[in-house]
Amino acid sequence: MASRTPRKSNQAMLGHKIIVGIDYGTTFTGASYVSTTGSDIKDDIVIGTWPGPSRDSETVFKAPSRIAYPLDNPLNRTIRWGFQVEPGMTTYSWTKLLLDRNTALGEFDDPTLEGASKTGILQLPCGKSAVGVVGDFLKEVRTHVLKMIEKQITKEVLGITPIEYWFTVPAIWSDQAKAQTKTATQRAGFAYNIERPNDQIFMVTEPEAAAIAALNKTATDGLGASFKPGDGVLVCDCGGGTVDITTYLINKVEPLLAFEELCTGIGGKCGSTAIDRNLYRLMSRRFGKAFDMLPAKKKGPGSEFMRKFEIVKKDFGFNIEEDKIYELPLNIRAGKVKSEYFDDEERLVLLSSNDIRQLFDPVVDQVIGLVRKQMDDAEDAESGIINRIILVGGFGDSEYLREKMEKAFFGITITVPDNPQTAIVKGAALRGLWGLQVTTKRCRRHYGFKWSIPFRQRIDREKNAHIDEFTRKKMVGGIMKWMISKGEKYTENHTHTVDYTQVYHSGSSMIIKFVLFSSDSNEAPERVEHTSIKKVGTISVDITDIDFNLFEKKLIDGVLSYQAKFSVKVIFGAQDGVLKFETTSQGKVVGKTTIDFTNTKYY
Prior knowledge:
With 603 residues, the chain is of the alpha+beta class.
C-alpha cells in the first residue's frame, strides 16, 4: 500500500487534474467527472447516485433542482435538497430562471412565465436572492460530488488533486445571468476555497457541451450515423426552462472532431416547465380558487401532483390513445366540477389525451418555430445546409416532440442520443478534458459604447449636437461605436479595443465610468435611442495612478482640466464564461475594471 501513494502524489504534481462537468438545470441537476489520464468519452463518469428517499430507483443520473430550508420546514434541522425534498415540504424550485429575470421576454419565450410568480412557483425565501438560493443548492451538490469522487480515488488523492469545474449555461442568457451564475458557484465553494485553493471554475454553453458529447459519440460509434466534413448539424437543447439552438459545421472528424458555429444561435425560455405552467392555467380555469389557493407544497414541483404529471409527460407520445384518461392525485374541494374533470371519491384530477396534447402543443410549436428560424438564418447566410438535427436535454427525450419534429422537418435526419439528459453534463467535462473543439463561434448580439463624433451636416440633427468643452468643436453625441457585431466570428479569448477620450476636471472622482450597450437587431443601429439597444452595464475604472501631466490640459471655467485618453478592451469568449474588461492608458493597465449590470426585473 505504501508504494502506491507516492505514485499518485507524483502524478498530481505532474499536472494531473480532475475535470467535473455540472449541468445546473431549471428542473434537474447532473454531474460527471473525468481524470486527465482519460482520453475517451467512455472515461467520462456520470454520477448516478443522489441522496434522498424520494427517488424512484437506485440509479438516477440527475437530482431535482429544488431546496427546502429549515426555517420553512420546522421538522427539518438542516437544508434538504434534490431527492431529500419530500412531498409536503415547502420548497424553492425553478430558481435558475430567476438568474435571468432582468432580460425582457422575447419572441420565443413562454408568455406564461411572467405570471408564474403569482402562482407561488417562482418564489424566493424571505431575505434571500436568487444567487443566494442557487449558491446554497450548489453547495450541497459540491459536497455530494466530492464524496462520490472520493469513493473512487480515496480522500488523500482527492486532497492533492486540483479540480476544474465546468458549469453549463444557456447560450441565450444575458451577460448578467452568466455573471450571477459564476457568483453563485463561488459562494458554493467551487473556487476561492481555502481548503482547495487550486480548484477553478469555467463555463461552457449548454448547446456547445451537448454538441461535444453528441457529435463525438456519434462520430466514434461506427453505427452508420457518423458525420463527415461539410455536414451541418443543428443541436436543439430542450431543457426544463430554456430551449437553446446552435448549428455547427463539421470541419474534420479525424484525428479529433472539430467544428464551428454555422450561424448565430437562437433560443427561448420555452422549456418543459412551460408545459407545467400550462397545466396550472388549465387547473385554474377548471377548479378556480380551489386550485389557486392551494399552497405550493401541494401543487408545486416535488408534490405528489407534479411527480405524477412528470411521469405523464415522459410517457406522452407513445401509442397515443384518443380516449386515454390520465389521473393526477390532488386533494381539493372541487365543488360543482364536472365529473369528467375530477374523481371526487378517489380525489383524482382527470385529464384526457386531448388535454395533454393542448398542454404540449404551444410549447412544441415554439420549439419548431425556433428550429425553423435557425434553418432560415443558415440559408440566408449561405453558410451551408443543415442535414441533421440532434435533440438533447430532458425535454429532448419527449417522444411527442420527436414525432412532431419529424413531421415538421421531413427529409432531415433527427436523432436522439442515448440518455439525452446526460449529454450536456458529459460534454461539459469533455470540454475541459479535450480543450477547445468549437474552432469559431458567432457573437449573439452587437456590443459597443456610445460616443461623440464631428457633426455631419444634413445627416445629424441639431438637437443631438453639442460643443466639445475641450476642443470647442461641434460634435454629435449618442453615436454607437460597435466593438463586435452580431453574427461575427470569434475565437476563444477574442478581444476588441476601443479608444476613448474623456475630459477630466481636477478634483473630480477618480472613478471613470463607461456604459456598455448591446443590441439583438440584425442590423447594427447607429444611434443609442434605437429600441433594440439595451444597457448591459456600467464599467468602472479606477484612474488613481494615472499621471495626468502627460495629457493635454487647459483651464475650463477656471478649473484645470485634462483630455484623458484610454483604451478599453473587452474580452469575448473567455473560458470562465463571462465578459472581461481591461483599461489601458499611457501604455499600462489602469486600476481595476469592473462592471455593474443593469437591474430591471421582467418577471
